[in-house]
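Researcher: Please translate sequence to structure tokens.
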Amino acid sequence: MAKYEDISFRRQEGIAHLTVERPERLNAYRDQTADELLDAFRRADADASTRAVILRGAGRAFGAGYDLSVIKPETTPELDRVLDVHFNPLIGFMRTTRLPIVSQVNGPCVGAAVGVALAGDIIIAARSAYFYEPFVGIALVPDAGNSLFLSRIAGRVRAAPAMLLGDRIGAEEALRWGLVWKVCEDDALAAEAESIARRLCERAPAALAATKRLIVAATDSGMDAQLDLERDLQGIAGRSPEMKAEIAAFFARRRPA
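Model: Translation complete:
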């Protein structure tokens, strides 16, 4: 994949900067977005001079989840295939790449974007950021690793209402839950992410990769099976009458008055 449409990718002094560039859609992901991110992560991993990655969203959002506008209202979405082909490979590679990933969460972080952010290794958030699990509210189930990451990081008692009720989790609350490592003022977020990545670049690459491998082994056991279960249940949910009604309502709201 030589040219990107949905993301930008640049290397600078050992740091790979990956930015989702769909600000007009609040960086909502389509299938192509996930494919481009995966390609960029693979390119960064293959370059021995790259020591760390910063992942961010352009404009005022980290990511607004999956872009429902790509689903045609007259069709039945095959969301299990979407996960199997596009999103699960991305999440899996993020957790197994040798490179430490800094997730720079600004503004809304919604749905699949929550899974992508939490697949990073060091997650920092702007004070205005929030995390939001909208799945059940649109007749779907959590995917992109959400059910694994949120449950293991925050615990069942917190994860269950977050996913079942869909209340927004503000940055400070996310910090208390352990979803993020640090909360920064909005105008200081980018500099903090850069500072963290620079510190990572000063560490021995082999030690970083081995330490990440140890953390993954300790915390991510069963991830492949959980991603498969998310895929299977999302496929069922995506074919339900309730989901078809949600898609129809989504397009009805987008029609000009």
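Researcher: Any highlights?
Model: The radius of gyration is 18 Å.
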